[in-house]
Design a protein that fits this description.
6% of the residues lie in helices and 36% in strands. By secondary structure, the protein is mostly beta strands. It has a domain of 250 residues: Beta-galactosidase, Chain A, domain 5, CATH 2.70.98.10. The protein has a 9-stranded antiparallel beta sheet, with no helix packed on it. The chain has a 6-stranded antiparallel beta sheet with strand order 18-27-26-23-20-21, with no helix packed on it.
């Protein structure tokens, strides 16, 4: 090849400088979905941490944090393109609404009126139904280098939930390597709301490595048991003396296969809500996860009364994620801050009702660090 031809060929090659630190191509997130435009937003702080978010489902797509050797690792599962998020149903990284977790038989009463939601999980309504907010396009705004705002206008009757709801999710990347997530919502009618982030954390940075060796601490003396359809029974039971006890940090996998304990059997591992001791105090750690392989730690803070710990039990090794990696069962841990599952049908639990003229507030902080 002559010199001129080589120069021309070089000029025609697509530059790679537009890729994010996590290797994402923003062009793969530009797509029209349900008549709305999607894109990729990027936050970076002065320490080099990077967080990528798409307005399709308000999803966290990648989180780059340093490991114990200073190497940057992507610590969440997800896909390389919006096309894959659309094609392959998942909750990866999403801003869940209107109601995170399950509602029994998709039914609840408001002011004596029975409301029937669509059923999409073992006879129940899960994460807002089959067309919940994780499958909708939020209005995304890059406020500055470290702040992204996502707004969802949910019409009255959306998945049969009452009231036109305007919900805002504000992601802020702080100087201390935390992702600060603030949720707000208002409604034109009395309704229920329970929002969360559904990131699948793999703190090794390598999804080929399962999360069973991750050391977990949950600041909770009690949890809410479930039946074999994953539905809360209405009971609140102590964790002491059971595989549900993470008040002393232990490996996620230590008791995860103890099917002699009915709760492990019912959920095929951990997929439960813990009743936090923090009592809404955002300054108290609700949970802590640590990978002995990478040294990366994650602390969770919240003003919510509960946290769902889900150990990726439904991942089946068939889904290919970022960089072609196959996601195996238990390749991740989800830590979903929330009101308890099925609270609208359990009046003894903290209420998830939102009145017109009132504003729903929920706050969650994911703080990353290194475990020495």
């Amino acid at each position: 090849m002559g010199l001129a031809a080589m120069i021309l060929a070089g000029c025609s090659m697509k530059p790679q400088s537009n890729l994010t630190d996590s290797g994402l191509n923003p062009e793969n997130f530009k797509k029209e979905v349900k008549g709305k435009q999607t894109q990729l937003f990027v936050m970076k702080n002065k320490k080099g941490m990077e967080v990528c978010i798409t307005n399709f489902g308000g999803r966290i797509v990648s989180i780059m944090v340093p490991d114990k050797n200073g190497k940057m690792q992507d610590v969440v599962l997800g896909f390389d393109s919006v096309a894959d998020y659309v094609k392959i149903p998942s909750d990866f990284g999403s801003a869940i609404g209107r109601y995170a977790n399950r509602i029994n038989k998709g039914q609840f009463k408001l002011d004596g009126k029975l409301i029937q939601l669509p059923i999409n999980n073992f006879g129940h309504c899960l994460h807002g139904g089959p067309q919940g907010w994780q499958y909708q396009v939020y209005e995304g705004t890059q406020v500055n280098d470290t702040t992204i705002k996502m707004v969802r206008h949910s019409p009255d009757g959306d998945m049969n939930f009452p009231g036109a709801v305007t919900a805002t999710v504000t992601y802020t990347l702080t100087a201390d390597n935390s992702i600060d997530i603030n949720y707000e919502a208002t409604s034109t009618k009395k309704t229920i709301i329970n929002m969360t982030n559904h990131s699948y954390f793999n703190l090794t940075g390598d999804p080929d490595k399962l999360s069973l060796d991750n050391v977990l601490y949950v600041n909770a003396d009690q949890y809410t048991p479930v039946d074999n359809t994953f539905m809360t029974t209405g009971e609140i039971k102590p964790v002491k003396g059971t595989p549900m006890d993470f008040t002393t940090p232990k490996a996620v996998g230590k008791d995860i296969n103890d099917s002699a304990f009915v709760q492990i059997k019912n959920a095929n591992g951990y997929d439960h809500n813990w009743v936090l001791n923090t009592k809404g105090d955002i300054k108290k750690v609700a949970a802590r996860l640590y990978s002995p392989v990478s040294g990366i730690s994650l602390e969770v803070y919240t003003n919510e009364p509960g946290i769902q710990v889900y150990t990726g039990n439904f991942l089946d090794g068939k889904t290919k994620g970022k960089k072609g990696k196959v996601y195996q069962k238990r390749a991740s841990v989800c830590l979903e801050t929330q009101h308890y599952p099925d609270s609208p049908n359990k009046p003894q639990w903290p209420s998830a009702v939102l009145e017109p003229g009132k504003t729903y507030h929920s706050h969650c902080i994911f703080k990353f660090g290194i475990q020495k």
